[in-house]
Amino acid sequence: MDVAQYADYEAKHFLWEAENGVGTITLNRPERKNPLTFESYAELRDLFRGLLYAEDIHAVIVRGAGGNFCSGGDVHEIIGPLTRMNMKQLLAFTRMTGDLVKWCHHRHGV
Question: pTM score, two decimals?
Answer without folding.
Answer: 0.85
